[in-house]
Amino acid sequence: MENLPNCPECGSEYVYSDGSILICPECSHEFQAEDTAEKVYKDVNGNVLVDGDTVIVMQDLKVKGASQAIKKGTKVKNIRLVEPEDGIHDIACKIPGFGSMMLKTSVVKKG
């Protein structure tokens, strides 16, 4: 069973979740759960990534609208980890010859 917080309005322990919100059945108060856990980003080998790291692309990546692909072994410096808007790409970076791009942590290793 989930470990949910008590209701901040009435203190009831009978809070339940409905999707992304929590609801108190006693006072009908709706609230967001306090998410104190910070997301951990890991590369293809399981190493933890942080902002400013240098990573190496592990496979050739086709780029839509570009005449060439990003080659395996390309070094990308000074990455920035972001919460993915599309749910997939979580690294914002600049790749020489391509400009600003978004990458997945699953295709890079810490360099």
How would you characterize the overall build of this protein?
This protein is mainly β and about 110 residues long. It folds into 2 domains: about 1-35, N-terminal domain of TfIIb, CATH 2.20.25; about 40-110, Roll (SH3 type barrels). The chain has no helices and 11 strands. It has strands at about 15-20, 20-25, 30, 40, 50, 55, 75, 80, 90-95, 100-105, 110. The chain has a 3-stranded antiparallel beta sheet with strand order 1-2-3, with no helix packed on it. It has a 3-stranded antiparallel beta sheet with strand order 7-6-11, with no helix packed on it. Strand 9 and strand 10 form a beta hairpin. It is elongated and about 60 Å long.
Features:
111 residues; mainly beta; N-terminal domain of TfIIb; SH3 type barrels; 2 domains; three-stranded antiparallel β-sheet; elongated
CATH topology of the largest domain: SH3 type barrels
CATH homolog superfamily of the largest domain? SH3 Domains
**Any idea what the radius of gyration is?**
20 Å
How many structural domains does the protein architecture include? 2
> Which outline best applies?
elongated
Assign the structural class, choosing from mainly alpha, mainly beta, alpha/beta, alpha+beta, or little secondary structure. Answer: mainly beta
Mean pLDDT: 88
CATH architecture identity of the largest domain: Roll
Helix content: under 10%
Tell me the β content.
25-35%
Count of individual helical segments: 0
Physical arrangement of strands within the biggest beta sheet: 1-2-3
In this structure, how is the largest beta sheet organized? Answer: 3 strands, antiparallel
Number of strands: 11
How many angstroms separate the termini?
Answer: 41 Å
Unreliable spans are: none
Look at the structure and give the CATH class of the largest domain: Mainly Beta
Order of helices and strands: EEEEEEEEEEE
